[in-house]
């Protein structure tokens, strides 16, 4: 819609008409498939904004047409679509594709891994981007970070979780490695795209679900089925989204358009995080005050058990890497090294401040 109105605008202005022949010669139109339901706040709208930004920044030389989940390919089909060239671009989460390589998970989130800013630090100023390029290179894909949800919620439960035993026997929507962690604690993990979670909760096909956080979870209406909303989203402390690009298509872009795509992805990375930060608090208030949602944190012993199982999963991934270039092992090693370097700082920096802010001191205007 924006694309059409942009092109229309470009063709009616006098100056643009003069410039039109030169522009139309180099006009490129790309498809961007996404994993998100149409119009989904945050992820879906963020992907649409990214597409519109690239189109606008390139003055229409590179026009990106976004597709919601299922419009061109299924929600979890972005990797294959971009690898095959069905779409030149996609917006989704890398950890949906651990079937391609276990290394993918680390570029979204690993349980007890990185916060949003730690992940960004690793990818941009650590070895993250280089390892990511190497991981995707055999598939003919490259990727950039393009969004982050911030800290997620552990998810929605129909009953209270008082002990590890309460997890036993639950069918719970949790993709990727969180599914594996929970499985070790007796949960049957289920992977479902966002748009299919609510009907599955309603029909009783699943007993609970994680999705994102208050902003998106409110929009999808999970509170209508589950009343307990658990924090300690240790599984996705800052879930990164990715912009995947078909490598052959990328190589056809002139350098300036490549730069526009990179910078637009970077802008969208920040923009999405800002949106989640701004919208999550009011959404949480609505869930609690209007819908009677009960917010809980996991008991410490359950959290410890999840941590221990996360370590087991990490070790399984490490041991399971049989690639000749040890790419998954090297990602795990670098993930652990960066974690070791960054945590002493975030602990004394951000975490110390957040703890300080929990003190009963309050701002109160005297006038
Ligand atoms: Ca999630």
The CATH class of the domain at 3-151 and 237-279 is Alpha Beta
Q: Can you tell me the CATH topology of the domain at 3-151 and 237-279?
A: D-Maltodextrin-Binding Protein, domain 2
Any idea what the CATH superfamily of the domain at 3-151 and 237-279 is called? Bacterial extracellular solute-binding protein, family 7
Q: What is the CA-atom radius of gyration, in angstroms?
A: 22 Å
**Count of alpha and pi helical runs:** 13
Number of β-strand runs: 11
Architecture of the domain at 3-151 and 237-279, CATH level 2? 3-Layer(aba) Sandwich
> Which small compounds were modeled alongside the protein?
calcium ion
Query: What's the pLDDT, averaged over the residues?
Result: 93
Quaternary form: single chain
Structural class: alpha/beta
Distance between the termini: 50 Å
- Helicity level, as a percent range? 40-55%
Report the uncertain regions.
1-23
Largest sheet, in brief, is: 6 strands, mixed
Describe this structure in words.
The protein is α/β, with parallel strands linked by helices and 367 residues long. The chain has a domain at 3-151 and 237-279: D-Maltodextrin-Binding Protein, domain 2 (3-Layer(aba) Sandwich). It has 13 helices and eleven strands. Strand 1, helix 3 and strand 2 form a beta-alpha-beta unit. Helix 3 (43-57) packs antiparallel against helix 11 (255-291), helix 6 (128-136) packs antiparallel against helix 13 and helix 7 packs across helix 12. The longest helix is centred in the C-terminal third of the chain and has 37 residues, at 255-291. It is globular and about 60 Å long. Residues 1-23 have low confidence and may be disordered. Calcium ion binds at residues 152, 210-212, 236, 239.
């Amino acid at each position: 819609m924006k694309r059409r109105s942009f092109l229309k605008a470009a063709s009616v202005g006098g100056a643009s008409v003069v410039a039109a022949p030169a522009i139309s010669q180099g006009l490129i139109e790309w498809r961007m498939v996404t994993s998100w339901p149409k119009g989904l706040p945050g992820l879906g709208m963020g992907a649409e904004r990214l597409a519109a930004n690239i189109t606008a920044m390139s003055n229409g030389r590179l026009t990106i047409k976004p597709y919601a989940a299922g419009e061109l390919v299924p929600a979890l089909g972005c990797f294959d679509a971009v690898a095959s060239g069905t779409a030149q671009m996609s917006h989704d989460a890398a950890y949906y594709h651990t079937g391609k390589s276990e290394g993918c998970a680390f570029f979204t989130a690993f349980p007890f891994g990185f916060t949003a800013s730690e992940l960004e630090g690793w990818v941009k100023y650590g070895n993250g981007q280089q390892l990511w390029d190497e991981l995707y290179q055999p598939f003919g894909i490259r990727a950039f970070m393009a969004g982050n949800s911030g800290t997620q919620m552990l998810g929605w439960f129909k009953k209270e979780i008082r002990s590890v035993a309460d997890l036993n026997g639950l069918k719970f929507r949790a993709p990727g490695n969180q599914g594996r962690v929970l499985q070790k604690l007796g949960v049957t993990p289920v992977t479902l795209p966002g748009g299919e979670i609510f009907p599955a909760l309603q029909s009783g096909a699943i007993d609970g679900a994680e999705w994102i956080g208050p902003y998106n979870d409110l929009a999808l209406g999970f509170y209508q089925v589950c009343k307990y909303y658990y924090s300690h989203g240790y599984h996705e402390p800052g879930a990164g989204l990715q912009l995947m690009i078909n490598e052959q298509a990328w190589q056809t872009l002139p350098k300036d358009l490549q730069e526009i795509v990179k910078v637009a992805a970077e802008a969208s990375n920040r923009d999405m995080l800002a949106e989640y930060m701004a919208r999550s608090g009011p959404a949480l208030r609505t869930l609690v005050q209007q819908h009677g949602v009960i917010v809980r944190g996991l008991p410490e012993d359950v959290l410890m058990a999840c941590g221990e199982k996360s370590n087991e999963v990490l070790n399984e991934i490490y041991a399971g890497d049989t690639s000749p270039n040890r790419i998954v092992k090297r990602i795990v090693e670098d993930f652990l090294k960066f974690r070791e370097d960054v945590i002493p700082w975030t602990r004394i920096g951000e975490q110390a401040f957040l703890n300080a802010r929990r003190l009963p001191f309050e701002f109160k205007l005297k006038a």
